Amino acid sequence: LRRAARRAAALAAAALLLSPRAKAALGPRYGGDLTVAVLTVPSAPDPRVPRGAAESLIALLVHERLLRLDAAGEPRAGLAHDWLGSADGREWVLRLAPEATFHDGAPVAPADVVRSLRTFLRGPSIAADRLADTLDGGAAFRAERSDELPGVAVSGAEVVLRFREPVAAPLAPLAAPSAAIVSAAGVAAGPFVPAATVPGRRLALTAFGAHVRGRPLLDRVSLVTAARADELETEVLTRRAGLVVGAGAWGAPAATLLLALDPARAPFAAAERRASVAEALARADLARRVLPGAERPAGLLPPALWPAPPSESEAVRAVPPRAGTPVSLLVSAEVPPLLSQRVMAYLDELGLDATVTAAPPDRAVASGGDARLFLWSPEVPEPELALRELAALGPAVPGVAEALAAAAREREPARRYALLQDAERALRAAAVLVPVAVVPIAAHAHPRLHGLAADRAGRLLLEDAWLEP
Amino acid sequence: LSRIGLRGRLLAGFALLAVPPILLLGFSSAALLARGSQRAVEQRLEAALRSAQDELDRRRQAAAEQAERMLSDELPKTEVAANPLELAGKLAAASGLDVLEVLDAEGRVISSSHWPAGFGFLDRDVVFPGQDAYRLETVKAGHGGVERLAVTAASRGRWREQDVLVRAGWLVDEDFAAQLSALMGLDLALRDQTHGRWIARPGDALHGWLSPALREAGVGQVALGSETYRYAARAVVPGLWLVAALPRETAEAVATDIRRLSVALAVATLVAALVGAVLLSGRIARPVRELAEGARRVAAGDLDAAVPVQTADEIGQLAESFNAMTADLRDSRERLLQAERVAAWREMARRLAHELKNPIFPIQLSIETLRRVLDQEQRGEPVSGKQFAALFRESSETIIDELGSLRKIIDEFSQFARMPRPQPAPTDVNALVEHTLTLHRARADGVAIETELGPDLPPANVDRDLLGRALGNLVANALEAMPDGGTLRVRTAAEPPGVSVQVEDTGPGLNEEQRTRLFTPYYTTKRGGTGLGLAIVQGIISDHGGRVQVRSEPGQGTTFTLLLPAAPVPKEAGAQ
Prior knowledge:
Chain A has helices at 2-17, 20-26, 53-62, 110-121, 126-134, 138-142, 232-237, 271-280, 283-290, 337-350, 361-366, 383-391, 400-409, 413-429; strands spanning 33-38, 67-69, 75-77, 80-85, 91-96, 152-155, 158-162, 192-198, 202-207, 220-225, 243-261, 325-332, 352-359, 371-376, 433-445, 449-450, 453-454, 460-461, 466-467. Chain A is an alpha+beta fold. In chain A, strand 12 (325-332), helix 10 (337-350) and strand 13 form a beta-alpha-beta unit. By secondary structure, chain B is α+β, with helices and mostly antiparallel strands. In chain B, 51% of the residues lie in helices and 21% in strands. Chains A and B meet through helix 9, helix 10 and strand 13 of A and loops of B.
């Protein structure tokens, strides 16, 4: 509220003193309707693991979590005002912000938090898996062997989390979008309120004045589908949209372009064949010539999650596949077509006869095809949770689960980092997930749009965005 | 055939004359049309193939010019730092080319307009044997690439101090097939036999032709889906064919229309001929039929029958003659009736005079006798009372007797004149016969009466009293004909559609003159007869709609046969 008051006062003074052009140059202002063109408008903005840039955007617009992670991966206030850990690190008390309310005006109560966390813990999120593994009674509850969840309790106006043992980054899973808090009626508490929906085509959101961090600057955000994927960017150029999500490159590299090779399918059953693919991809060339703004990947995780670049993994002898081997390649619609075509050209050069099929982001990430090419960013921008997520994208790789479990228990940062690197190297060596490039967020913003930001996971944030008049 | 009427025969004749030529004309024109249509389809398909081949040749020639121009004019103008991803694309867009690629001496792609992602890699496009102008180029499509047929030409030269090959051309894809198909109004496609695929507009039926065995020999026919197609093929290069196809229905649409029109005309002509035949035969046959009907009516006694005269031809003359003939017959009948009436009146006057004269004469004699006695008394010649009384009694008795005869004569005439109308009702004829014979048995002195009454005789529709009188007359006549005895035999029998009654006597019989005049009123062969008995019988039977027949020969007796109508069957019985 203080922020809002300050901005209002500044805007009023500027309005009195300056010309319209100068007023725009002054900075943030309230008001404005932003149209966002996306490939597909998600059907229902329920809390869930977002797949693709559009779902991630909506998740953060509509929902609010107890905590967020800042650029350094440290927890920041969400609906929880502050949090305190016990000396042994097994109990954490989260105090809810007194001004936290849902879109219908009802205050966010500890009971809402407990109910939402119970739903989250039984959901498909990898973050939920990690939290359930460490919470008292969490594993039995997640496995539905018990309805009791002693690890999550209410104490007056506070929520108490009890862990089986002290763990590193205990509260990080609470920053997952699927851990958003909703009321018993399913009402969210995010910065924007869903106002009107045309299923699959349009979703209109209006600013939530009672949001826990204050009213967002924009009055209204409308998500609309573009007529064609390859026309997304023209939506901005023709001023039909102020922002497109799903095409273009915005900001610093924040997502990993992954080529997943399915070891359960014949072309890539042998590690040597997969290694040959990984070796054939000239990553620097891709980053330099095909995708402006992209970078050569240092590892599987986006660079923002690593304090320092990971070391090279142990090389596996590469054996090229048999010439003419047919390969089906499923490509996420968010991947730039030229990049996908270049990957196809690499596969052709290797002697593989690739057939490309485009698919929605969620399907491309999940399964299907001999190989899958998709943009990946973690649900929770925390290295251990991110690596857990990556490990779940393919079959179990020896040593990875053990290293991640050890990293969860290890609270000393340097040792923990080493364990995570071990896990990452093991994953990379298996060549099931081949990092192709680290790419900027697939978005394109009109110059009139200011204040656009992204979190550590490469998700766009419109909370402080504003439109130049 | 003899049962077929005149009109039917006329119709058959017309049909035999009209149908074969019409059918012959129809079949021969259909055959000619089919042959002409087939030739037109062949010419159309071959023309389409020639045009498509010409277009491909034109594109190849233009591609060669473009490649040369790119090498000599356009590429030297490009900046050294130009992005290879965009270089060829921009040049191709500016020149309207679908395909433009620059390869180095090793065949690696320096820049490609249609597959930019392939830069730095060896060009591995598939080339059709015999002529490398036709290539399967990898072309960007969505997130990947697809192989598309292209007609290209290459030019070699130096660029940026290295040997390069510039290849330019256009895609020969679905759009190409669609454009030519629309232009030529048929399905035009290319068949890549080597890879087993069609390059045809989307939805083209040729996509469904999985394994075509193509050859350059005339027009073939193939069933695709629910339609049959006529097609022709032409090899562009070995393994690559141009195919033109037309749905058979479309190919033969004009011929089909003309054939339908011919059939319609033939049918219309046939119908018109038949209608004309019907009308004409009716016109010819109607007067003949009317004449036949008139003749039938005349034969049945209707002399008023007349036939309308509608034409002046032979049929009209025949009708006039017929009408004249019936008019003559009517006149003759009138005259005959008139003569018969005069004769009958004369006969009646004669009989009446004769009958009246017979009793009048005794009466006159008796009265004159009495006057003579009275005159004798007045002259003083007295007659004894006894004599006078005897004379008076005799004379008066004579007068009374003769007056009785006169009354009888008058009664019979009166009865004949006042014959009542019959009131027919179902009547048991056997019972009536028995009753009548019972009344006359007393008078049958020396005559044996026999009956042969038919069993299960149906009731006759007659007036019981009148038929009884007729039977009585016949029985009385028969008995009177056998004064010396004989046999009276009465028979009844069912005689469809009625009942017959025979009264047979063994009397002297009748000669021909007697038989002829038997039923003439007042004709009699008996002394004291009025000659009305049989006339009454005939009148009664005629009034019932029956007939009287007589069979008699002198010395052979006489047999009268009455043919009576049967009583109508009750409706209930009929319904059952």
